[in-house]
Design brief:
Strand content: 5-15%
Subunit structure: Homotetramer.
Distance between the termini: 51 Å
Bound molecules: pyridoxal-5'-phosphate
Family: Belongs to the trans-sulfuration enzymes family. MetZ subfamily.
Number of domains: 2
Keywords: Amino-acid biosynthesis, Lyase, Methionine biosynthesis, Pyridoxal phosphate, Transferase
Largest sheet: 7 strands, mixed
Structural class: alpha/beta
Enzyme class: transferase
Number of strands: 12
CATH architecture of the largest domain: 3-Layer(aba) Sandwich
Radius of gyration: 21 Å
Order of helices and strands: HHHEHEHEHEHEHEEHHHEHEHEEHEH
CATH topology of the largest domain: Aspartate Aminotransferase, domain 2
Number of helices: 15
Strand order of the largest sheet: 1-7-6-5-4-2-3
CATH class of the largest domain: Alpha Beta
Shape: globular
CATH superfamily of the largest domain: Type I PLP-dependent aspartate aminotransferase-like (Major domain)
Pfam family, one: Cys_Met_Meta_PP
Oligomer: single chain
Length: 387
């Protein structure tokens, strides 16, 4: 079956009630027929549900669909995207290991790598993600992990995933890609040679700004180690959130097509506006990595950035003039959202580190929603004309 069909048809096993839509399994634990069955399931001699910190039918259904979409052998769900990222690092690395990460990463991922895992003797070198030579030069004998985002949040920098995978080939290095902006509809990093793909399911996977969630998919041997860490430390996804996320995957393909169509149309409409220094979008010819975007991604995605002339003062004015667009730190919602990264998601970085990844004081991230494009264009053009 095609993925579009599987995203709709993969379901937890139907109960004796013959329900069509999967029920919510709001249960902390599961029962055993007798103590012998409990012993055998705990000993992993026979499969079975035990306790919802380990597994749950709603969570398993969500993970099965994600693995199908990402072409992954195995996967694991988490309470948030950050829990997925942290658990992957903590589950696979030990004191004395070395990580190389792109400097264009989600703000909290940078905090983990500089202030949390660093505290436990796991060192991290940050490099310019698109500079493959910089990755190569940073490799040491104890390098165990490559971590990147493509496209990056919020700078929309791309990394040639196949090139990075080729660089670590034959070495004992895990390549993990945060695929949050692209989703498996636009690109499947495992097919390009990555070992793990991570998501904040909070974003496009939910798609309506309702629940938090995270997921990691990839090589079974790595997922098993991360599972051991997660099983005993408890960053589990709630069954309710899993139910929402799994339902949302039924429409992911359709939604991503429309997000990308709207984002490209808006980027084209705002390009060259006198109040805007630059418009960045992977499928605009002016994007410095346009060729790579076309090669690596099916669509340009739902996010664009605008560098507003006049810095924060004008951004503040824009935020007051917009009528439809929400001002919020989320993305991937049906509602179009404007975010000012320098004062919110990336405010904990130094001005210097922000500048290195193109986060200027005038930069706004626009997560283009599913409203009628005519209304979005009108809202932005009206507001920008008044700046
Ligand atoms: C939002 C986001 C995260 C963090 O996910 P949460 O679900 O908020 O914990 C990680 N990576 C990227 C690229 C994100 O946009």
């Amino acid at each position: 079956m095609k993925k579009q069909t599987q995203a709709i048809r993969i379901q937890a096993k139907r109960s004796h009630n013959r329900e069509h839509s999967v029920p919510l399994y709001l249960t902390s634990s599961f029962t055993f027929e007798d103590s012998e069955q409990g012993r055998a399931i705990f000993a992993e001699e026979i499969p079975g549900n035990i306790y919802s910190r380990y597994q749950n039918p709603n969570v398993d259904e969500f993970v099965e669909k994600m693995c199908m979409l990402e072409n992954a052998e195995a996967g694991l769900a988490f309470s948030t995207g950050m829990a997925a990222i942290f658990s992957s690092l903590a589950g696979l690395l030990k004191q004395g290991d070395h990580v190389i990460a792109s400097n264009a990463l989600f703000g909290s991922a940078i905090q983990i790598l500089t202030k949390i895992t660093a505290k436990w003797g796991i060192e991290c070198t940050f490099v310019d993600g698109h500079d493959i030579k910089a990755w190569e030069a940073a490799i040491k004998d104890n390098t165990k992990f490559f971590f990147c985002e493509s496209p990056s949040n919020p700078g929309l920098d791309l990394i040639d995933i196949a090139e990075l995978a080729a660089l670590k080939k034959g070495k004992d290095i895990v390549l993990a890609v945060d695929n949050c902006f692209a989703t498996p509809i636009l690109q499947t990093p495992l097919d390009l040679g990555a070992d793990l793909v991570l998501h904040s399911a909070t974003k496009y996977i939910d798609g309506q700004g309702r629940v938090l969630g995270g997921v990691v998919c990839g090589k079974a041997e790595y997922i098993a180690e991360i599972r051991f860490f997660a099983r005993h430390t408890g960053p589990s996804l709630s069954p309710f959130n899993a139910w929402i996320l799994s339902k949302s995957l039924e429409l992911l393909d359709l939604r991503m097509q429309k997000h990308a169509e709207n984002a490209l149309a808006l980027a084209e409409a705002l390009q060259g506006h006198p109040a805007v220094q630059a418009v960045k979008y992977p499928f605009l010819k002016s994007h410095p990595q346009y060729e790579l975007a076309k090669k690596q991604m099916k669509y340009g995605g739902g996010i664009l950035t605008l560098d507003i002339k006049g810095g924060f003062e004008k951004v503040q004015k824009l935020s007051q003039l917009l009528q439809i667009v929400s001002i919020s730190p989320n993305l991937g919602d049906t509602r179009t959202i404007l975010t000012h990264p320098a004062s919110t998601t990336h405010s904990k970085l130094s001005a210097e580190d922000r500048a290195a990844v193109g986060i200027t004081d005038g930069l706004v991230r626009v997560a283009v929603g599913l409203e009628a494009i005519e209304d979005l264009k009108e809202d932005f053009l009206n507001a920008l004309n008044q700046l």
